[in-house]
Design goal:
The chain is an alpha+beta fold. The protein contains 27 helices and 17 strands. The protein has a 6-stranded antiparallel beta sheet.
Length: about 1000
C-alpha cells in the first residue's frame, strides 16, 4: 500500500484546505513530519486513518468529540481526501463526518449526515465513481488493505509510546493488545464453547438419571396389580445402582403381567366358542324368516303386474306410431321455416315499396339498382365540400374555446393579484408562529429537567413518611426482643447456678460399686450425695441455654431490621430534601438522622405534590405549544410554494393572452375563404351536410327496395320446394296426409317417458319370473314360521360374555405391551446414558485444559494465551533482527513462558544482554534502550501482522515520537535501520519535534501553528 496525496479541509487544527504530497516526500525514502507541540502532526495521521476507516485512532475517537476544526468558517465543510495505491489499484477515497451546516432557508444550523465517496483510476477512462455507501467502501478498503483499523494503527502508524508500555506491561496487558491485533476471539470462543459443552453434558447426565426414574414410575403405573408383587426400587437419582434396579424391577413386572395375559387368553377362547354357536343359530333363524317373507312378496308383485298389463300394451302401440312420425319431423320443420321466411320477406317488400315514389312502386330490382348507382356517384362528389364545412364549424368551436380560455385567464390573474396583495402579512405571521413554537420547546425542555427531580423528591417524601411508621414499629420490636433476651439470659444463669450447686448429686448418680470415682478415684462410695429439692439436670440447663440463644438471635435480627429501616428512612429523607444528592450515598444514615434531630424535617408530601402538579401542567402546556413547530414549518413551506405558484400562474396567463390574439387573426382569414367555397356548393340546401344526407337517404331507400324484391322472390321459391318434400316424406312414413303425421308426432321427453314405463313393466315381469323359480324360498314357505327374537336374545348374552373376556384380554395385552415398551425405553435410556457420561468426562477434561484449570495443564495457560504466546514468539524473532543492529549486537528479544508469582504463564518478554550473558525483564531497560527496543518490536510486529493479513505490501510507514531519548551514536544506528527499509522500496515518515532530526533528514513536512489554524509546508 502506497500513499500518494492527502487533502485535509476544516479537519482538526487545520482551518482551511491543506495538501500533503506523499509522492514528493517518499522520493527520498525517509522524511520528517515536525512542528511545535499542538500544531497538528498527529492530526495528519488521524486524517489518513479517517479516510481509510471512517474513524481516528484510539482515544481520540471519544464519544461526543468533533473532528471539525474550530478555526474553519461556517460555510466550509469538513472533508478528507486520500489518494493511494493498494492491491494493484489506484483509488481516491473522500470522507466527511457528520457536521452542522448553515440552513439553506432561514437562520441557524442543521446536522448534515456523514458522507463517503470512492473513485478508481482507469488508465483509459480516467477517474470512475465506484460507490457512495459507507459500508461498501469500508468493506472494500478493509479487504484490499487486509487489516482492521486497530491493526493499521499499530502496523502503519507506529505509536512508540504504546510499545514502550507493551515492553513494561504485565502478561494480561500484553494479551489484550495482541488479541486485538491478531483477532484471537475465535480461540476464546472455543474456550467458552467447551465450558458450555461441559455444563450441558453435566445437565444431560443428571437429566438421564431423572428420566430413568420417571420411566420406573410409569412402569409402576402401567403394571397395576402386577406391580405390587415386585420389590420396590430403593435407589435414587445419581446412585450407581439405579439403572440396574429399574431394569430388574421391570422384568419382574413383565413376567407377572404375561401370566395374567395367558389366563385371559384361555377365558376368551371359551367365550368365542359359545358366541359362534349362538351366532350360527341366529343366522339360521334370520335366513328362514327372510326366505318366507321373500316368497310372500313375490306372490304380491305377480298379482300387481297382471293388473298393469293393458296399460303396458297401449304405451307400446303409441310409442311405435310416434317413432314413425319422427321420420316426417325434419320435413315439417323445413316447411314451417320456409313459410315464416316468406311472410317476413313479403312484409319487408311492402315496407320498402311504401317509401318509394309512386312511379317506382312496380319497378324491378335492376331498375332500382341503376338509380342507386347514379345517386352514389353524385354523393361522392360532395366529399371535399363536406370537409370544408366541417373545418368551418371547427373554426367556430375553436374561437369559442379561445374566448373561454381568455375569461379563465382573466379570472386567474385577478385571483392571483388579490392573493399576492396579502402575502407579506401572511409570511410574517407564519414566521412568528414558528418562533413562538421554538421558544415553547425550549421552555418545555427546561421544565422537563425540573419535573424529573421534583417527582423523585415527591416519591422520596412518600417513602420517608411510610418508613417513619416502620421505624417506630421496628424500635418497639427491638425493645421487646431486648427484654425477652435479658429474661432468657437471667433464667439460664439461674438454672446453671442451681445445677452447679447440686453437681455432686448428678455425679453420684453415675457411681457403681467397684468402679473408681471420677473425682476422688476411690472404688468405695460410702455416702454418695443425693438430689435436693428443685434439682436442675443437664437437659433443663441446655433447654434454657437454647431459649437464651434464640432470644439473642431474635434481638440481633430486630437490631439489623431497625438499622436497615433507619438507613432507608435517612436515604428517603435526604432525597426528599435535595434531589441532586439522592440516597446520601457518600454520607452515613446517622448524619441524616442528626440532621432531622436538628429541626430540618424537609418539605411535606403535599408541598412536593403541588410543585410536581404545577411543573407538569406548565410542561404540558409548553409541550402542546411546541408540538405545533412542525405544522407551522409545513404551513410556511406550503405558503411559500403557493406564492411561487401564483406568480408563475399570472405570468403564464399573460403569455397565453398574447398567443390567443395571433390565433384569432389567423382563424378569421381562414373562415372567410371557407364561406366563399361553401356558398357555391350547397345550392338550395341549408348546408352541404343536409344536401349529402338527402342523397344518402335516396341511395339507402333504393338499395333496401332492390334487396327486398330479391329476398321475396327467393323465399317463394324455397316455400314451394318445402311443400313437395313434406308430401313425399308423409307418404313414405305410412301417413295419408302431412297433417296426420303432425298429429301423431311426440317430442323426445314424451317418447322417453313411454319407453321408461314399458321397460319398467318388462323388468318387473322378469324379476317376478326369476323369484318364482327360486327353490329355497318355496321350501321355506312350507316350513313353520321362524322365531329370530329368541335366537337374538341368546346371541346377545353370548356376545356380552365375549366382550367382557375381550376387554380383560385387551387390558392384559395392553399392560404387557406398555410394560414392554417402557422397559425397552428404560433399557434404551440406560444404553444412551453410557456414551453421554463418557462424552461428558471427555468434554470436561478438554474444557479444563483449554481454561488452564486442569492438572494436565502444567503452565496453567489458557488456549487463547497459548496462541498469543506463539504470535509473541514470532514478533520477538522478527524484532531481534533490527534490535541487534540498533544496539550494535548487544540485545536480543526472547519470548518467555515462565510463570511469575501466582499468575499464568505464556506472555513473558525478556531481553538477553550479550555483554553479560544474562536474561532480564524488558522493564529494566533504560529510556533510550526502551525506545529502540520498542521501535524494533513495532517493526517486527508490523512484519508479522502484514504476513498474517495475507502479505499485503506496506510501502509507507509512520513512526511517532521517542527519538529525543537517544544519543547521537544510537540515533545514527536507528536511522540506519529505518533507512534500510528503503531497500524494499518503502518510505518511512518520522513524527518528531527533535531539532537534531531536521539536520539529519533533509526531506520534511512542517506543520505550522497559526492563530487562524495550522498549515503544512513541504521542505524538499
Amino acid at each position: 500500500m502506497r500513499l500518494h496525496r492527502l487533502s485535509i479541509t476544516a479537519f482538526g487544527p487545520f482551518g482551511a484546505t491543506q495538501e500533503v504530497d506523499f509522492d514528493a516526500l517518499s522520493s527520498a525514502g525517509l522524511f520528517l513530519l515536525h512542528g511545535p507541540t499542538g500544531a497538528g502532526k498527529t492530526s495528519v495521521l488521524d486524517a489518513v486513518c479517517f479516510a481509510l476507516y471512517g474513524a481516528v485512532p484510539g482515544a481520540r475517537q471519544s464519544p461526543g468529540a468533533s473532528l471539525r476544526s474550530d478555526h474553519a468558517p461556517a460555510d466550509l465543510p469538513t472533508e478528507v481526501q486520500l489518494e493511494l495505491t493498494v492491491g494493484g489499484r489506484r483509488l481516491e477515497v473522500t470522507r466527511s463526518p457528520a457536521q452542522p451546516r448553515p440552513k439553506k432557508r432561514g437562520d441557524g444550523f442543521t446536522l448534515e449526515k456523514a458522507q463517503s465517496r470512492l473513485r478508481g483510476h482507469d488508465p483509459e477512462r480516467g477517474w470512475q465513481a465506484l460507490s457512495k455507501s459507507h459500508q461498501e467502501i469500508g468493506e472494500e478498503l478493509t479487504r484490499l488493505i487486509g487489516m482492521s483499523r486497530d491493526q493499521f494503527c499499530q502496523v502503519v502508524l507506529l505509536p512508540q509510546g504504546d510499545f514502550a508500555r507493551f515492553l513494561r506491561s504485565d502478561a494480561e496487558a500484553r494479551g489484550k493488545l495482541l488479541g486485538r491485533l491478531f483477532d484471537t476471539r475465535r480461540f476464546a470462543a472455543v474456550e467458552e464453547r467447551l465450558a458450555e459443552l461441559r455444563r450441558g453434558g453435566e445437565a444431560r447426565v443428571t437429566a438421564a438419571d431423572e428420566r430413568i426414574l420417571a420411566l420406573a414410575q410409569r412402569i409402576a403405573q402401567a403394571a397395576g396389580p402386577a406391580g405390587g408383587e415386585a420389590t420396590p426400587i430403593a435407589a435414587r437419582p445419581g446412585e450407581p445402582g439405579l439403572a440396574e434396579a429399574v431394569l430388574e424391577w421391570a422384568a419382574v413386572a413383565r413376567s407377572t403381567a404375561r401370566e395374567r395375559l395367558d389366563i385371559a387368553h384361555r377365558v376368551l377362547t371359551g367365550a368365542e366358542g359359545r358366541q359362534r354357536t349362538a351366532r350360527h343359530a341366529l343366522d339360521t333363524e334370520r335366513e328362514l324368516a327372510r326366505l318366507q317373507e321373500r316368497y310372500e312378496e313375490t306372490v304380491r308383485r305377480a298379482a300387481a303386474l297382471e293388473e298393469r298389463r293393458p296399460g303396458h300394451d297401449r304405451c307400446q302401440e303409441e310409442l311405435e306410431r310416434a317413432r314413425k312420425a319422427d321420420r316426417v319431423a325434419p320435413a315439417l320443420e323445413l316447411r314451417e321455416e320456409a313459410e315464416l321466411a316468406h311472410r317476413r320477406a313479403d312484409a319487408a317488400l311492402d315496407r320498402a315499396r311504401a317509401q318509394l315514389p309512386s312511379d317506382l312502386a312496380d319497378a324491378g330490382p335492376d331498375q332500382l339498382a341503376e338509380l342507386e348507382r347514379r345517386f352514389r356517384q353524385e354523393l361522392g362528389g360532395l366529399e371535399s365540400a363536406r370537409r370544408a364545412e366541417a373545418r368551418s364549424a371547427g373554426i367556430d368551436g375553436e374561437r369559442e374555446r379561445l374566448e373561454r380560455e381568455s375569461r379563465a385567464d382573466d379570472a386567474t390573474v385577478r385571483d392571483a393579484d388579490a392573493w399576492l396583495a396579502g402575502w407579506d402579512a401572511v409570511h410574517a405571521g407564519l414566521r412568528e408562529r414558528i418562533a413562538t413554537a421554538q421558544e415553547a420547546a425550549t421552555r418545555a425542555e427546561r421544565l422537563a429537567g425540573l419535573l424529573a427531580p421534583a417527582r423523585r423528591r415527591l416519591e422520596a417524601a412518600r417513602r420517608r413518611d411510610a418508613l417513619a411508621d416502620e421505624l417506630l414499629a421496628a424500635g418497639e420490636t427491638l425493645a421487646e426482643a431486648r427484654e425477652r433476651a435479658l429474661d432468657a439470659h437471667e433464667s439460664w444463669l439461674g438454672l446453671r447456678e442451681r445445677r452447679l450447686r447440686d453437681i455432686a448429686a448428678e455425679l453420684a448418680a453415675g457411681l457403681v460399686d467397684g468402679t473408681p470415682c471420677t473425682v476422688c478415684g476411690s472404688a468405695e462410695h460410702p455416702a454418695p450425695a443425693t438430689e435436693g429439692d428443685g434439682h436442675v439436670d443437664r437437659a433443663t440447663e441446655e433447654t434454657a441455654l437454647t431459649a437464651h440463644r434464640r432470644a439473642e438471635e431474635t434481638r440481633a435480627r430486630a437490631e439489623q431490621a431497625l438499622g436497615l429501616v433507619r438507613e432507608r428512612h435517612a436515604t428517603a429523607h435526604a432525597e426528599a430534601r435535595d434531589a441532586a444528592a439522592p440516597a446520601a450515598a457518600d454520607g452515613s444514615s446517622a448524619a441524616v438522622a442528626d440532621g432531622e434531630a436538628q429541626g430540618a424535617p424537609g418539605p411535606s408530601v403535599d408541598e412536593l405534590r403541588d410543585t410536581v402538579d404545577r411543573l407538569a401542567a406548565e410542561h404540558a402546556a409548553e409541550h402542546l405549544l411546541a408540538a405545533g413547530t412542525h405544522a407551522a414549518r409545513e404551513a410556511l413551506d406550503a405558503a411559500e410554494r403557493e406564492h411561487a405558484d401564483r406568480l408563475e400562474l399570472r405570468q403564464e396567463a399573460e403569455r397565453r393572452a398574447a398567443a390567443r390574439t395571433s390565433r384569432r387573426e389567423a382563424l378569421d382569414r381562414e373562415q372567410t375563404a371557407l364561406h366563399d367555397e361553401l356558398a357555391a356548393v350547397r345550392g338550395a340546401s341549408g348546408s352541404v351536410a343536409a344536401h349529402a344526407d338527402r342523397l344518402t337517404r335516396r341511395v339507402e331507400l333504393l338499395a333496401e327496395a332492390a334487396e327486398a324484391v330479391r329476398a321475396e322472390q327467393d323465399a317463394a321459391r324455397r316455400r314451394k320446394e318445402a311443400d313437395d318434400r313434406l308430401s313425399d316424406a308423409a307418404f313414405r312414413a305410412g301417413f295419408d296426409t302431412p297433417e296426420a303425421a303432425a298429429a301423431t308426432l311426440l317430442d323426445a321427453a314424451a317418447q322417453r317417458d313411454l319407453q321408461h314405463r314399458i321397460d319398467a313393466w318388462q323388468a318387473e315381469a322378469a324379476a317376478v319370473a326369476d323369484r318364482r323359480a327360486e327353490r329355497d324360498a318355496r321350501e321355506a314357505a312350507e316350513q313353520p314360521a321362524a322365531r329370530p327374537s329368541a335366537a337374538q336374545g341368546a346371541f346377545e348374552t353370548a356376545e356380552w360374555l365375549l366382550r367382557e373376556a375381550s376387554s380383560a384380554l385387551a387390558a392384559a395385552d395392553q399392560r404387557c405391551g406398555e410394560l414392554t415398551r417402557l422397559s425397552r425405553q428404560a433399557a434404551d435410556e440406560v444404553r444412551r446414558l453410557g456414551p453421554v457420561r463418557q462424552e461428558y468426562e471427555r468434554v470436561a477434561r478438554l474444557a479444563g485444559l483449554a481454561a488452564g484449570t486442569s492438572a494436565d495443564n502444567e503452565r496453567k495457560m489458557r488456549l487463547e494465551a497459548y496462541v498469543l504466546a506463539a504470535r509473541l514468539e514470532q514478533v520477538a524473532a522478527a524484532a531481534t533482527a533490527r534490535l541487534q543492529r540498533m544496539s550494535s549486537g548487544r540485545y536480543t528479544l526472547v519470548h518467555s513462558d515462565a510463570r511469575t508469582g501466582g499468575r499464568r504463564a505464556g506472555l513473558g518478554l525478556h531481553v538477553v544482554d550479550a555483554w553479560t550473558g544474562s536474561e532480564r525483564d524488558t522493564a529494566t531497560l533504560s529510556g533510550g534502550e526502551t525506545f529502540f527496543a520498542s521501535l524494533a518490536l513495532a517493526l517486527g510486529l508490523a512484519d508479522v501482522v502484514t504476513e498474517e493479513a495475507g502479505g499485503v505490501r506496506l510501502d509507507t510507514l509512520f513512526i511517532d515520537e521517542g527519538f529525543g531519548s537517544l544519543d547521537d551514536q544510537t540515533l545514527d544506528e536507528v536511522l540506519d535501520v529505518l533507512d534500510s527499509l528503503r531497500e524494499r522500496d518503502r518510505s518511512v515518515g518520522i513524527v518528531s519535534h527533535v531539532a537534531d532530526l531536521r539536520r539529519r533528514i533533509p526531506v520534511r513536512l512542517e506543520v505550522v501553528k497559526e492563530r487562524q489554524g495550522s498549515s503544512v509546508r513541504h521542505r524538499l
